[in-house]
Every structure is written in structure tokens, then in C-alpha cells.
Design brief:
Number of strands of chain A: 13
Oligomer: heterodimer
Largest sheet of chain A: 7 strands, mixed
Number of helices of chain A: 13
Mean pLDDT of chain A: 85
Strand order of the largest sheet of chain A: 7-8-6-9-10-11-13
Structural class of chain A: alpha/beta
CATH architecture of the largest domain in chain A: 3-Layer(aba) Sandwich
Number of helices of chain B: 14
Number of domains of chain A: 2
Low-confidence stretches of chain A: 17-48
Shape of chain B: globular
Structural class of chain B: mainly alpha
CATH superfamily of the largest domain in chain A: Response regulator
Largest interface: A-B, 61 and 50 residues
Low-confidence stretches of chain B: none
CATH class of chain B: Mainly Alpha
Order of helices and strands of chain A: HHEHEHEHEEHEHEHEHEHEHEHEEH
Order of helices and strands of chain B: HHHHHHHEEEHHHHEHHH
Strand order of the largest sheet of chain B: 1-4
Distance between the termini of chain B: 21 Å
Mean pLDDT of chain B: 89
Helix content of chain B: 55-70%
Chain lengths: 371, 335
């Protein structure tokens, strides 16, 4: 009997520990990067009417990219004398925890909300609640695609399709002499569902196909069905140049690396483009054993991080596209401030840049590169 | 008592096949067949770099699989190895890159984290008698959250090879002249030999098998089942620590929130290699071979132009066949 009671007590204690543990997994992660910059500024300004409080729900801090967004937002908030609470879930697949964060943000009754939705449909109820409460929502990063009409007052986002097209254009300058009948261009995409990722891939594929056709060659897109179906390039049997898009069945470093190796080992591959940090990092790992980037194959990445920056600096990658996360954070807070003041706001393209070993140390670019 | 416990992993009817190792022989043939098939079908596959890569990406799964084999043999399971491996890699990497500690410290801490998680799992399963599936499901979540908390949900990049701190990457792959050699495979072989001896020839290993066969009978014969049951999970934790190091050395960047699902690769490897889900039987060599079947499929199928989702279906079918062979074999041997 005694033993039973003891074991029951222990079980309860364990369960409690686990619950606390599970609970913690969200809270500190969401609170740690939270900031309330500008508190001094607002106290300086006294009770000036121009000072607002914003709740910003990001996609998490898994990629250093988000730290740069946070930095830009902090800078602008302190400049404008506003306060903010910047949160995000543990990973970009934590859809439900993000919805909870959005609910909490609405409950805090801020002057405006910034949102980078992981899944718009999951956020719909909360978005309606915010609308009813009269809190304007500004989308950022991938924004809130397919949100109900009027729910999102403006977006501060990279035009991902344009960013992919810029990658294609810059890549074309490097490979146009090598593009000939019987060559292959590889594209690595982390997945075929997230709009931002798909658009970066499609922007590249469409523009590259266009450039190839303008050089009097035929082109065909192969590989993942989503890209094959959604590209504007016409299907051509026995085309001169093949653009092959590979998407792993699940997002693991191993599978993306294997995809890249498959492309690298094909004798006709002249170039590979990885459309986000995950894919570009997998390219670096894949090339370690093969060593074709920088010589036989042109490697082009997207975003930064220590691995990709090193690859660009040492010539493994010919270059990469960086978004402007700092500018995105700044524009976001600008839009939030304007929306809270009741001004009319509209979408802002926060832009992107092509960086290479030569220009990556320029101040204009290096502020957007992170480790 | 210890000497009489038979590891049913080597139970077959044909004495010659038994000597070579039954299911293990079949699995080895499967690996050779797959390798030959992909080599014939794809010129791009037939390269030294492909073998090097298959080995590179097999280390972390192999380590997890060796560990989880012990948990499986007790009739349990350990689902925490996937997120655990990532968690330990994050903590170790955090100490190196953010706290400025030497790589050696990071590596030791990575292993210690694994051992600690093993102790926790062992406590839950062996002492508190929580079903292993549930207990390790919980610790799987805990590991996932913990990795995110420690790193503030940011991904960690372990030092690159070119830097002074990058020496640890040579543990698994060493460059002599212009050629890279899969040094990690040597460590895998050594650990496989050690753990095979531990499992089959030592008292703790025998007790772990006995617990999986019949825990009550083992307890009644005077064995401290709690202690040895716990040890199985600690071994599993230690090897997950090794896996964390191998993962960081291979992929360099470790992202929080990932790792869920990787435990299944390891568990599948162990099962294909002949470890019984019911416990009481298993082989470390078999586990290594099982992992290679998975690695071979993952690496080879893209080369023959198969879309990613088909790879998953084929891997699923292979697993069914492997388990089926085990079921039929067990029935045939009269039990």
C-alpha cells in the first residue's frame, strides 16, 4: 500500500515536471527575444499621443534571419518612441503555438499587430477577432497570404518571386556561355507548400527559362510536380536545356543534401540554385565530398548564415541573394506606427540584394548578412 | 543464469546460415543487390564520393540505432533519440560558439547531455514503470523544447573545418593529400565490436536480453532488473550523444525544433537488422546493416529519377518485408 502511494506520488510529480517542461518549451522561447525598446524614448516624450504599443508575432527565431528582423524593428521602435513585444514559436512548423501567441497578442489590446503567419487558415478566427476589436494587422515576411479582404492593412515583405528572378538574372550572367544543348540547371527547394519558398523557386525557374529561350534554345522544367505545373515555361519534349527542381519528402538536412548530390553527380549539370538557408546549407555539405562548386558547377545560394557566407567568401558559391531583414523590421514598425495613427498604408517591398565575395563587406549589404 | 540466456537474434534452423547470422545475411545480400542495382542504373551513382556520402550520412543514424537497439531488446523503445540528438548538438554547439568554450568541452557536454537523458528515461521506465513509448514520447518533447530554450530558438553553426576549432570534423572524415577518407566508419566498426561483446558476452548485456525475454522470471532469479533495465536506456542516451556529435560534424548547422522523425530512421534500421519489437532479441551488427539498407535507399533512389514521395513508399514496403521475415522466422523456429 505504502509503495503504491509512493509510486503514485512520484508519478504525479513526474507528470507535473513534464507538464512544466512542455509549457516552458514555448514560453521562454517566445519571451526571450521579446523586447520593449524605446521605453526611455517614450518616457522622454512624456505622455505624447504619438507613442504606441505593438504586438509582433513572427515565425520564430530558428533562423538568424529573424534576429535581423528583430534588430530592425527594435531600432525603428526606439526611434519612433514606440514599445513592442516581439514573439515567435519554436519552429516554423509550430502552427498551433503561433495561433496561441496571436490570441495572446490580441488579448493584450495593442495599437497594432504585426503578423507573419505560418498558416493563414489556422489564424482566421484570431484575425477576425482582431478586426472586431479594431486592431489593425500588418503582415510581414511572407505576410498573411489569402487573408480575408481588408483584414490585413498592409504588408512589409520581400517580393519572393522578384528575388528568385534576380537570382536567375545574376546566375545567367555567369553561365550564359556554358548554356548549350544537353545541359542541366538544378534548383533545390526546401518544400513545395510554403508560398514564400515556392515563389522564390518559381521566380528563378520562370526567369531562367525565359532567358534560355531568348538565347534561341528550348527548355523544359522537370522534377517536382508543383513546379512543373506552376511554371510559365512551356512543356517541351527533348528540350536543349533541362531545369530540374528537387524537393525532399521531408525537411531534413540529409535528404536535401542527397538531392543536391544527385544533381552534382550528373555530368550535364552546370549550375545549382538553393532557394533558402536550409537548401543552400545542404548544397555546401553536399559539395564537401564532390568538390564541383566553384569549378565545374556554379553554385548560387539564398539568405545568409555562417555556412553560406563562408561559401560565398571562398568562392564555393558564385553568389547569393539576401533579403533585407533589417529594412523589413524597420518598415514593419513604420507601417504599424502609421496604421495605429490611422493613416492610410500600403504594401512595401522590402527588397533583396545579390551579394558576392567582392561586395559582401560593403556596409549596405553586410548589415543584412547574419551568422 | 547469465550464461543460459540465449539471444534469439541468431535463432535459425540451418546451422550454416546460423553461423553467418540468419537475417543479417539476408540484409547484407539486400545491401549488395541495391548497391549493384543503383550502380548499373546510374553512372552518377558509381563514384567514390557517393560511398563517402552514404557513410557520412549514416554515422548519426547508426549511433542512434546502436543505442536504441538496447532499448528495443528490453522490450521497450526510445523515441527521444531524434530530438534528443539535435538538442545535445545544440547545447554543445551553443557552449562553443556563443559561450566561447573549447570544442572539447562542447563534445563532452554533448555526450553528458545524452547520458543524463538516458538516466531520465531509465528512471521513468525502469523505476516508475511508465510504458516506454509514453515515457520517451514525453522526453522527446522535453528535448525538443529544451534545445530551443537553450539557444533562444536560434540555429547553431558548429565551427567550420577551416577554422582552428573545426578539428572535430576530422574525427569522421580525414583528408590526406587530395583524398577524403571516411574515418568515422572505423569508429563505427570499433563501437559495433565493443557493443556486440557487451550485449552477448557480458553480464549486463545478458541481463538486458533476459529482461526483454521475460522480466518477471529474470527478477525472480535474483537479478536487479531495475538497475540493468536502466542501463539499457543510459547506453541509448550515450550513443545518442555520439550521434549528436556525428550530426554536427556532418551537417555543421543544427536547427532547433528539428529532429522529430529521425528516431524512426534509427528504429527502422534496428528492426530491419533483426531486432525484435517484442524484445529479447537483437543484434548490433544487424542494426548496422539495417541502417545501411535505409541509407542505400535514401541515397540511391533519387539517382534513378524517383520522386521524393516514392522513396518513402518504397522504404515503408522494405520495412514491412523485413518485419514479415522476422515474424515467419520466429514461427518456423517453433515459438
Amino acid at each position: 500500500m505504502k509503495k503504491k502511494v509512493l509510486s503514485m506520488f512520484l508519478s504525479v510529480a513526474m507528470a507535473a515536471t513534464i507538464l512544466v517542461g512542455c509549457g516552458n518549451s514555448n514560453t521562454p522561447a517566445s519571451n526571450t527575444p521579446a523586447s520593449s525598446s524605446g521605453s526611455e524614448a517614450s518616457s522622454d516624450a512624456g505622455s505624447a499621443d504619438g507613442s504606441f504599443h505593438f504586438e509582433i508575432v513572427s515565425k520564430g527565431f530558428q533562423h538568424q534571419y529573424w534576429q535581423a528582423v528583430l534588430k530592425g524593428a527594435e531600432q525603428k521602435a526606439s526611434e519612433l518612441g514606440d514599445t513592442m513585444n516581439f514573439v515567435g514559436p519554436n519552429s516554423e512548423s509550430d502552427i498551433a503555438p503561433q495561433v496561441q501567441m496571436l490570441d495572446a497578442a490580441i488579448a493584450a489590446n495593442p495599437d497594432a499587430i504585426g503578423l507573419a503567419a505560418l498558416d493563414t487558415s489556422a489564424c482566421l478566427d484570431a484575425i477576425t477577432a482582431a478586426q472586431n476589436a479594431g486592431i489593425p494587422i500588418v503582415g510581414f515576411d511572407s505576410g498573411v497570404p489569402n487573408a480575408p479582404e481588408g483584414a490585413i492593412v498592409a504588408n512589409a515583405a520581400t517580393d519572393n518571386y522578384a528575388a528568385g528572378a534576380l537570382a536567375a538574372l545574376e546566375t545567367w550572367q555567369l553561365i550564359k556561355d556554358k548554356v548549350a544543348p544537353g545541359t542541366r540547371i538544378g534548383v533545390l527547394s526546401q518544400d513545395a507548400t510554403a508560398e514564400s519558398i515556392v515563389n522564390r523557386g518559381l521566380g528563378f525557374v520562370d526567369r531562367m527559362a525565359d532567358l534560355i529561350v531568348s538565347a534561341d534554345l528550348t527548355v523544359n522544367v522537370e522534377g517536382n510536380d508543383r513546379f512543373v505545373n506552376d511554371t510559365i515555361a512551356e512543356k517541351t519534349e527533348g528540350a536543349d536545356v533541362i531545369i530540374e527542381v528537387l524537393v525532399p519528402s521531408s525537411v531534413t538536412s540529409e535528404l536535401s543534401t542527397i538531392d543536391c548530390q544527385t544533381l552534382l553527380n550528373k555530368a550535364d549539370t552546370i549550375c545549382i540554385y538553393g532557394s533558402n538557408q536550409h537548401s543552400a546549407e545542404a548544397m555546401v555539405t553536399a559539395d564537401e565530398n564532390i568538390g564541383k562548386f566553384g569549378s565545374a558547377v556554379v553554385g548560387v545560394g539564398f539568405d545568409s548564415g555562417a555556412v553560406i557566407k563562408a561559401a560565398v567568401a571562398d568562392g564555393t558559391f558564385a553568389g547569393a541573394i539576401t533579403q533585407a531583414p533589417v529594412a523589413m523590421g524597420e518598415k514593419l514598425v513604420e507601417l504599424l506606427h502609421a496604421a495605429a495613427s490611422g493613416e492610410a498604408v500600403s504594401d512595401v517591398d522590402t527588397g533583396c540584394q545579390w551579394y558576392t565575395a567582392e561586395n559582401m563587406n560593403d556596409a549596405e549589404i553586410s548589415q543584412n548578412l547574419y551568422d | 543464469m547469465a550464461g543460459k540466456v540465449k539471444n534469439a537474434g541468431s535463432r535459425t534452423t540451418n546451422p550454416l546460415v546460423e553461423k553467418i547470422g540468419g537475417q543479417r545475411l539476408v540484409v547484407l545480400l539486400v545491401i549488395i543487390t541495391l548497391f549493384s542495382f543503383f550502380s548499373i542504373k546510374s553512372e552518377a551513382f558509381r563514384q567514390y564520393s557517393t560511398i563517402l556520402s552514404i557513410l557520412d550520412y549514416s554515422y548519426y543514424i547508426t549511433f542512434m540505432a546502436i543505442g536504441v537497439t538496447f532499448a528495443l531488446i528490453t522490450g521497450g523503445n526510445d523515441l527521444s533519440i531524434g530530438t534528443g540528438m539535435v538538442c545535445y548538438g545544440l547545447i554543445g554547439g551553443f557552449l562553443i560558439t556563443k559561450m566561447g568554450m573549447p570544442v572539447g568541452v562542447g563534445l563532452v557536454v554533448t555526450l553528458l547531455c545524452g547520458i543524463l537523458m538516458g538516466v531520465l528515461n531509465g528512471t521513468l521506465v525502469a523505476i516508475m514503470e511508465i510504458p516506454p513509448f509514453i515515457a520517451t514520447l514525453c522526453t522527446m518533447m522535453i528535448a525538443r523544447g529544451l534545445g530551443s530554450i537553450v539557444t533562444g530558438s536560434m540555429s547553431i553553426t558548429w565551427p567550420p573545418l577551416a577554422t582552428e576549432q573545426g578539428w572535430f570534423r576530422s574525427i569522421f572524415k580525414i583528408t590526406i593529400g587530395d583524398t577524403k577518407y571516411p574515418l568515422g566508419f572505423l569508429w563505427v566498426i570499433i563501437l559495433i565490436i565493443i557493443m556486440t561483446i557487451v550485449l552477448n558476452k557480458t553480464r549486463p548485456g545478458r541481463y538486458i536480453i533476459a529482461i526483454g525475454s521475460n522480466k518477471e522470471a529474470t527478477r525472480l532469479s535474483g537479478v536487479n532488473v531495475v538497475k540493468w533495465h536502466m542501463l539499457a536506456y543510459i547506453i541509448c542516451g550515450l550513443f545518442t550523444g555520439f550521434a549528436g556529435i556525428a550530426y554536427a560534424a556532418t551537417f555543421q548547422a543544427v536547427a532547433p525544433g528539428t529532429g522529430a522523425g529521425l528516431e524512426l530512421d534509427a528504429i527502422c534500421g534496428a528492426i530491419i537488422g533483426g531486432t525484435s519489437m517484442k524484445g529479447g532479441a537483437g543484434s548490433i551488427v544487424g542494426t548496422l546493416l539495417g541502417v545501411f539498407v535505409m541509407s542505400m535507399l535514401k541515397t540511391g533512389l533519387p539517382y534513378i529519377g524517383l520522386q521524393a514521395n516514392w522513396q518513402q513508399i518504397i522504404t515503408g514496403i522494405v520495412l514491412i518485408v523485413a518485419v514479415l521475415i522476422d515474424v515467419i522466422r520466429t514461427k518456423k523456429s517453433g515459438k
